[in-house]
């Protein structure tokens, strides 16, 4: 099982980012991917400096994805014990990732001006992605979605990066040149040898398969809307009993979503 560790930080004294939406979109494309059962996604929030080291030691991820703020030469922005910003320098990050160079294959820094850190980390990690300037929420989310969708469907790191940039471009954004990849071996894939299999073209599906696919896609869209509404209710819930009740509902929705995405994958890839 390969592991993608998402680390998110949005200190109280920084501009609010749509990190929850970014993680949700990554989880959605993962659920719908051909090789979803070979990849585990773990997300940790409000990351402090010590949490970073502890999370890498505990989860032993293959990919580390950071979502948050970056300040170029000042470093990445994590949280201190009071939930306020604390900078982590490029040199410190490089030293940390050097200790994990035999385990971690890829680091994605989905934060403004993070190319500075990417260049240092890439001395120890095969593939590192950073941003060469400020990047908007929408473009950051689209890049992450395209990158992980390709990766979880068997593409290598370089191809997945290209898919991420293309996802930005398809939205008509001018930010497709903002993500920058630093890579030594462009043929490497999260799943080992690239396992890309193209989906079955729609015109090759039988009428029954097409109708079933349309029905499943509509049901999936409704379920995901319901799931997002429950997430909002859970966030706003005031007491433990209400949170527990909503968590049970969320768990059931995830089971329903997983079941439908597996059925869709069977149709899309002829499984």
Automatic annotation (TrEMBL):
Q: Which domain of life is it from?
A: Bacteria
Q: What are the coiled-coil residue ranges?
A: 213-263
Q: Which residues cross the membrane?
A: none
Q: Which UniProt keywords apply?
A: Coiled coil
What is the annotated signal peptide range for this record? none
Q: Where is the CHAT domain?
A: 7-156
InterPro entries associated with the record: CHAT_dom, EAD9
Q: Which Pfam families match?
A: CHAT, EAD9
- Domain Effector-associated: start-end pairs: 208-267
Output this protein's name: CHAT domain-containing protein
Taxonomy-wise, where does this protein's organism fall, top ranks first?
Bacteria, Bacillati, Cyanobacteriota, Cyanophyceae, Nostocales
